[in-house]
Amino acid sequence: MRVAIQERSVARPHPHFVGRTMLGVSALALLLSAPAQTYGFSVFIDPMLAEFGWSRSLISAAYTIATLVSAAVVFLAGGVIDRFGQRRVMLVTAVAYVVALLMMGTVSNSIGLLLGFTLLRATGSSVLTLAARTLVAQWFVRRRGRAVSLINLGKTLGMAIVPPANALLIERFGWRGAWQLNALLVALLVPLVALLVRSRPEEVGQYPDGHQPDVTEAAATLADDEGSWSLRQALRTRAMWLLLSLTLVPALVTNGLSFNQISILTGIGLTPTVAATTFAVESIVALPMTLLVGWLADRFGPRSVLALGQATLTLAVLSLALTASAEMAFVFGALRGLSSGTWILASEVAWPAYFGRRYLGSIVGMSFTVSFIGAAAGPLPFGLIYDAFGSYDYAIWALTLLPAITTWAALIIRPPRPRHTVQAR
Questions:
Q1: How many Cα atoms sit within 13 Å of 142 on the Cβ side?
Q2: 14-204+220-417 adopts what CATH topology?
Q3: Structural domain spans, the chain
Q4: How deeply is 368 buried, as exposed, middle or buried, from its count of CB atoms within 10 A (0-12, 13-18, 19+)?
Q5: Full pLDDT tens readout for the chain, 425 residues
Q6: Exposure of 13 by Cβ count < 10 A (0-12 exposed, 13-18 middle, 19+ buried)?
Q7: Smallest Cα–Cα separation from 30: which of 161, 139, 118, 145?
Q8: Are the beta carbons of 369 and 122 closer than 8 angstroms?
Q9: End-to-end CA distance of the chain, in Å?
Q10: Torsion angle in degrees (nearest 10) through CA of 10, 11, 15, 18
Q11: What is the pTM assigned to this prediction?
């Protein structure tokens, strides 16, 4: 170990910290993933239903199947990232994502919808996002919370810009033309990934956070690498399962709401533009919250921030159940912004903090799989309940209980004991 530390201390550093570039590319990837996210796709639902005459149960079922397939894909992608690095995975996925967006613009039947959904979810909202998020975790350790905050600005901007922008594009060019224009925009990501992305700082003679560690810091970094948990080992810990529950519930609740949010709000008399604007309100509130939470996570750790995110999600669902005006809809959007700007970032900091960097692709890939299972389950009860009762009210009230339970789970979570202690038992 002494030799390893010494070698690290004399390696020639790169003249410019490449991690800043990784931040920019990752943030752009998250922004461009918006058309594949539930909040980005939701504005396409009603125009597609109007053209084809499908039921909401059918389109919800197609979305559920596609998302479950994506859950399996992203689980496998975590191990591929650990083996081949983020750069190769991001490049292949970005190309496939462009193809998926073009496919969505050519949908003519339910089979085409299912295939387009599946490729769209498997690329833009799963593997590309996983690679971008784990890329930043490789380049930053001490300032990981703030780094994750910065890349989440990309997602926040995407949530603010893409839904209303796509609503305008659909009005001007139709829903098919809007999908095609999204594909042209995402295609810009391909050359950027090919030219700029590097998977780890060691590939260019650099160190996490952009500075050469002293002997004490190098020893801590090596110890962290050696103490990293594999996925199989992590699954034996209580912390892993609690964190997975904190991933499952918000994914289920928020994706179920986002998928039907336009329909829910227009159903109470709001215009589609006002309904889509709630996503912008969410983003405006999430923007400063994201920056604040990054500092809080670095300062106090992720546990209290995770609890805050779950609690504000509970309040958001309650506010939606009580919404009867545009003003209340904007309150709902603001509360969702507080929640989404909190729990997502805190969980991204928690995974490497609790389980190390070495197997991060597999660990976070597992969390993405659970998230996609929740996302797949979320829209289906809304569609079934609406078709049965002509209202979303029962689904909204039932889902209020879940984030209330996970608020308690966040409060009791603790980092797992050192891995060697577990192995010795």
A1: 11
A2: Growth Hormone; Chain: A; (1.20.1250)
A3: 14-204+220-417
A4: buried
A5: 333 333 334 444 455 888 889 999 999 999 999 998 877 888 888 888 888 888 777 887 887 788 788 888 888 888 898 888 889 999 999 999 999 999 999 988 888 888 988 999 899 888 999 899 889 888 887 777 778 878 888 887 887 788 889 989 998 999 999 999 999 999 999 999 999 988 888 877 877 777 666 544 444 454 445 457 888 888 889 989 999 998 899 888 887 887 778 888 887 777 777 787 887 788 788 777 777 777 777 777 788 888 888 899 999 988 888 887 888 888 888 888 888 778 777 777 788 888 877 788 888 888 888 887 887 778 777 778 877 777 788 888 888 888 889 899 888 888 887 654 444 33
A6: middle
A7: 161
A8: no
A9: 25
A10: -130
A11: 0.69
* Residue listed under structure tokens 């020639």: 12
Residue type for position 330:
F
The pair of three-digit structure tokens given for residue 14, joined into one six-digit string: 């790169």
What does the chain come to in residues? 425
Q: Which two tokens stand for residue 120?
A: 């769209």
